[in-house]
Every structure is written in structure tokens, then in C-alpha cells.
Request: fold
Amino acid sequence: MQTFRWTDGSTYEVHRTEMTPMVVRDAILTAIGILALASIAVIHLVQIVPTFKETPLLGASFVLLIAGAMALAIRLVVRSDSTAWTAIGLLSGSAILGYVLTRMVSTPLDNVDVGNWACMLGIAALFVEVASVALSRHAVIVKRSLRPATASVATSNGGSRRGFRGRSRVGMN
Reply:
């Protein structure tokens, strides 16, 4: 049995076999997040050569966005936690903000796309980035709503130590 604590402080116990839906949901969220990050990277990679020719600073920001998306995708593979999902939301949100800013105001990053709201790759990127923000928000809520409760465990010298959060065996019978 694993003891969990809701955010309101109440606790409940879950048998290992009942945790399977939580594991499946986490795997699905992680897979969708990785695909969304890969999509953001590919959409911007396709635009990188012409962007570097017209506006080198924007091309450099595309490289940073692609590198950030790939780093976060790797992070999701290694550990899918609320910190990674928050970073995904911030990365996607900053890309949305950059798109809107360069369409509304002439900036040193991009002075040729003001008013160009009909760019098909830009619209595709916006779609994936908005979906990534929504997905990351959902993932953070899911991951923070259920936190394993800490449990006291007897030590060999008769004392006790506090349990660990996460995937430890503390609290399981």
C-alpha cells in the first residue's frame, strides 16, 4: 500500500495495482509532451535557413528555442515532474509572446513580419505552442494534486526517520 496526501491534507491509501492508471496517465502525458516539443523544434528548424538570411537575430532565437525544446524533451524522458512541465509552459509561452510581438511591432529581432499573421508555419507553431501551454498546465495540476505522504519508518537502533517522497518504498506494506 502507498499512502497519498491530497493538497487539502487528507490522506488515502492505494494498493500497487490501483496505481496503474496513474502510471499510464503519466506515460501518455509524457509522450504527448515529447511530441509537442519535437513539433515545435521541427517547425522552427524548417524556417531556420530563410530566417537567418533575413533576420539573423531571430534565427539565433530559433536555435535557442529548438535547443530548449529538445533539452526539455530529454528531461521528460528522464524525469517527468512539475518542474519540467512548468519549464515547457514557459518555453511555449515565450515562443507565443515572441510571435505576437514580432507581428505587432518592428523589433531588432524581426522587422519584416509586422502584420504577417497568415504565415502557415507560424500558425502551426502557434497551435502546437498553445496546446503545449495547456498540456503543461494540466500536467502541473495533476502532478501537484497527488503527493505521496511521508511516513515514519523504524530504524535498526529503535529510532525513526522520515520517509521520502516519490518512488521510494517507504510507506508501502
About this structure: The chain has five helices and five strands. The beta strands are 2-6, 11-14, 146-148, 152-154, 160-162.
